[in-house]
Design goal:
Structural class: alpha/beta
Largest sheet: 9 strands, mixed
CATH class: Alpha Beta
Helix content: 25-40%
Distance between the termini: 12 Å
CATH superfamily: NAD(P)-binding Rossmann-like Domain
Bound molecules: flavin-adenine dinucleotide
Number of helices: 8
Order of helices and strands: EHEHHEEEHEHEHEEEEEHEEEH
Length: about 325
């Protein structure tokens, strides 16, 4: 059993901490923010690869995560995860970057007339949706029930922090920009509207043809999330009222019944964009990075968490180049 500190309690930190705690380690999460105040709490969140690289690793993590979510969706009231039929509108098939990540057997045709003429095509995919307002508390509860500890504080010195445990896992999302001086990390601003759910049926859909357009509606248990925006290098946190109007207009073009639903809240968050997800052990140290998941933090969460576990508990221990437990300078 190792003493492991995980920085961050967004979806990456919580998933990783759960895997490590349930693998028999003693894990403490250290976080600046409560999980309700993270970027993860802004996402709806649908399983769908978006704005994360490299594609081959993202596809593998996505598929692994899909299987875990499919299991969690068997208890939707407990986990907040459920399977949903997601209607995808395709304007330009050369833009469809997610196709290779889709597990087999989840696609089905749209009904005649469901795809307007101006689109090239469209289809349904049956995918998991994690209602973050329920899924995040579920994750935290699962972690603490397994014996995990939580400390709320800001980490300012990664190397000093690493001396306090056998392993330190860095799941700080955009926070890594300052903590690791990682200038490759940049914000991709997202804005969503949270609407009041009524008895009117609303389809779960996405019409995404970046950079021209992104519109989606994600009906959850008690509300409906409408999106969205994805503006790289925009760190502003205030509502953009023009974007609010555009989101409503674009979504209403697909589903007129969304026009009059009451807006409960407008939320803004910054996806941690990076040329590639940073999931690696920092050479010669006991620090493992797991951040930079872009717009796919949920979609790849369990795949990434499992990869962190493999670094700490390799299937063949001889693969380890340095065993941090042998390093005298690491305190317990
Ligand atoms: C509008 C929007 C919609 C999205 N929709 C989806 C979707 O449908 N599907 C999907 O898969 N993804 C979606 N995403 C992307 C997803 O939300 C992110 O990829 C994911 O939340 C990143 O999670 P994280 O745990 O890495 O970071 P975060 O959730 O940002 O958590 C970072 C954690 O690190 C802590 N921290 C940071 N710095 C420090 C420090 N110095 N010391 C201590 N603690 C620190 C923070 O307090 C926090 O606990 C969406 C994002 C947005 C903004």
């Amino acid at each position: 059993m190792a003493h492991i500190n995980v920085i961050g309690c967004g979806v990456s930190g919580l998933s990783t901490a759960i895997r490590l705690q349930e693998a028999g380690h003693q894990v403490t999460i250290i976080s600046r923010d409560h999980f309700q105040d993270t970027v993860s709490a802004v996402a709806a969140a649908i399983w769908f690869p978006f704005s994360a690289e490299p594609q081959d690793r993202v596809n593998a993590w996505s598929k692994e995560t899909f299987d875990v979510f499919r299991q969690l969706a068997k208890e939707p009231e407990k986990t907040g995860v459920f399977m949903t039929d997601f209607l995808v509108f395709i304007e330009d098939p050369s833009y469809v970057y997610w196709e290779s990540a889709l597990p087999e057997g989840i696609k089905s045709p749209a009904a005649p007339g469901e795809i307007p003429e101006q689109y090239h095509s469209g289809y349904y995919v049956r995918v998991p949706l994690s209602d973050s307002s329920k899924y995040m508390p579920y994750l935290m509860d699962r972690f603490q029930s397994a014996g995990g500890q939580v400390e709320y504080r800001t980490v300012t010195d990664l190397e000093a922090e690493a001396r306090r445990a056998d392993w330190l896992v860095n799941c700080t999302g955009m926070g890594a920009r300052e903590l690791c001086d990682d200038q490759e990390l940049y914000p991709i601003r997202g804005q969503v509207l949270r609407l009041k759910k009524t008895d009117t049926p609303v389809k779960c859909f996405i019409d995404e043809y970046m950079p021209h357009r992104i519109a989606y509606a994600l009906p959850r248990t008690d509300d409906i999330i409408l999106g969205g925006t994805a503006i790289a290098h925009d760190a502003s946190t205030e509502e953009d009222t023009q974007a609010t109007r555009t989101i409503r207009t674009l979504c209403t073009q697909h589903q007129p019944q969304l026009k009059d639903l009451e807006v409960l809240e407008v939320k803004v968050g910054h996806r941690p964009g990076r040329s590639s997800v940073r999931l690696e052990r920092e050479p010669g140290t006991n620090i493992i990075h797991n951040y930079g998941h872009g717009g796919s933090g949920y979609t790849i969460s369990w795949g990434c968490a499992d990869e962190v576990v493999k670094v700490i508990d390799p299937p063949d221990r001889s693969e380890m180049d340095v065993d941090p437990l042998d390093r005298p300078e690491i305190g317990r």
